[in-house]
Amino acid sequence: MDAISQLESYREEIENISMETSEELEKFRIKFLGSKNQLKPLFSEIKNIPPNSRKEFGQQINAVKKLAEEKYQSLKLSLESSEQIKEIKNLDLTKPGPTINLGSRHPVSLVMNRIIDIFSRIGFSIAENREIEDEWHNFTALNTPENHPARDMTDTYYIKNDWTHMLRSQTSTVQVHVMESQQPPIRIISPGRVYRNETVSARSHCQFHQVEGLYIDKDVSFVDLKNTLLYFAREMYGPEAKIRLRPSYFPFTEPSAEVDVYWGLETEADHRITKGTGWLEIMGCGMVDPNVLENCGIDPDEYSGFAFGMGIERQAMRMYGITDIRMFFENDMRFLNQFRSVSI
Questions:
Q1: Handedness of CA 155, 211, 257, 270 (dihedral sign)
Q2: Against a cut of 0.85, is the pTM above it?
Q3: Alpha-carbon distance values, 101 to 24, 165, 332, 340 (Å)
Q4: Which pLDDT value is given to residue 7?
């Protein structure tokens, strides 16, 4: 059989072929599209074709090869579709499905949602912003002096080769963004993750979560702050919860205080986590320093306000009796599964 007749024979075979299995499809692929396919030898026969017909013959070979490729794809799709139909027909709808392992909410998420809900009831809205900040929002606008220890690289995670940007060390940065873009009255809470270069221990970690609050309006006083925090503690821990405020110092509030909630002294763990006092520090607070208001474009002669910030892990430790903050970050399923049935 000459080359022209052979090529025509292949064309007819490809056009009329049909198959029912993937094995037959693979044989077809090897025969017409494989590295040693049947069409390759025809190219060497071009020299035996009359000169004025060689170009046309070469084009015909390429056309048959293209036809084989299209036929292969068509047959492949057809077989895949028929196999899927067979699978559906053979599907036993009465057979029990695979077991689905349900996850659980992380205790930090549970507590964060509860805190948000408590403050939402008294008019606080949620504000969020970026975790990588500049010096203005993380320090300067918050009245932090240039020589303050918190600016040192031993306390702050600076971005490599960029000493003007860092991982935020507090969600107070969100408050600055809000005050720069909005005039009072302002009543917000800003939940989020923060980072500090601290030694990891049972009481502290290099990353943790905060919820900070800010209320700015006319005639806001320290009494408003105290009553807000007392309301929070009783909603969070029960109507018998006790708090105490200890004088403290923060660059962005004046006067400032630390807030403790009574933990108890019934067990050895209670003594260790509270350092033998029975009280656990849960947040810092104070009246917004006038310099901070002025830095953010708010008139301190007309407005005043208070701010507070709490570590969510500390709240979770108090709520669930957890004595080691590191457990929140270790992803130990034995620990996390204990919160599977918890809902807040």
A1: negative
A2: no
A3: 41, 42, 16, 11
A4: 78
